[in-house]
Amino acid sequence: MTAKLQAHRHTPPAELPATGWLSSMRAALVLILLCGGLYPLTGVWSAAGLFPHQATGSLIERDGVLVGSVLVGQSFVDPGYFRGRPSAAGYDPFRVAGSNLSPGNPQLRARAETTAHALAAEYAVDPTRIPVDLIAASGSGIDPHISPEAARIQVARVAEVRGLPQAQVAALVTAQVEPPLLGVLGQPRVNVLRLNLALDALGPSGTP
């Protein structure tokens, strides 16, 4: 009995026929072509056909010149423009990131207080009135939107710099408010790039 078990233990496994290896290789090759080639290409072609603007990055041109994407925030330092959210990534879409500082981090709290007081002095309001999205960077660092409140608190400054009536600039902000997705997802928001482009159509920036 022991001899039989030992003999069974040392019996080499049966080799897979050559046709089995070929079938496996063919199946793997077909799956690679389908999943790594045809499937993603079909998705790209379908997106380009159904949503051409979004498939190319939702880019915006003005007078034939590329000015940005509605999906990527930018830095607007001219006081005649509305500003977006701060960025811990320098508004660089290739290194999207937040500050990685916890809410209780003293460095983050000090930075937030400094920013709030600086904006309050610029907008001539109490620091407690500054919306949080003008103080805190987004997780990606390239959020293109701000809240309607963050846009409205900038109306007086923008109107003064551009020499426009505040009511006209405020109406422009209201017109640019985007509702929640499907009416329930997210909050009302304003795309800063679109708002500033619409602002340019009203009048020149007050900065040379």
From TrEMBL:
Keywords on record: ATP-binding, Cell membrane, Ion transport, Membrane, Nucleotide-binding, Potassium, Potassium transport, Transmembrane, Transmembrane helix, Transport
Annotated Gene Ontology cellular components are: plasma membrane
- Please describe the quaternary structure of this protein: The system is composed of three essential subunits: KdpA, KdpB and KdpC.
Gene of this entry: kdpC
Q: Which InterPro entries match?
A: KdpC
The molecular function GO annotations come to: ATP binding; P-type potassium transmembrane transporter activity
Membrane topology note:
Single-pass membrane protein
Name the family: Belongs to the KdpC family.
Asked whether the UniProt record includes Nucleotide-binding among its keywords, one would answer: yes
Species of provenance: Thiocapsa roseopersicina
Role summary: Part of the high-affinity ATP-driven potassium transport (or Kdp) system, which catalyzes the hydrolysis of ATP coupled with the electrogenic transport of potassium into the cytoplasm. This subunit acts as a catalytic chaperone that increases the ATP-binding affinity of the ATP-hydrolyzing subunit KdpB by the formation of a transient KdpB/KdpC/ATP ternary complex.
Q: Which protein are we looking at?
A: Potassium-transporting ATPase KdpC subunit
Among the Pfam families in the record, one is: KdpC
Query: Subcellular location, in the record's words?
Result: Cell membrane
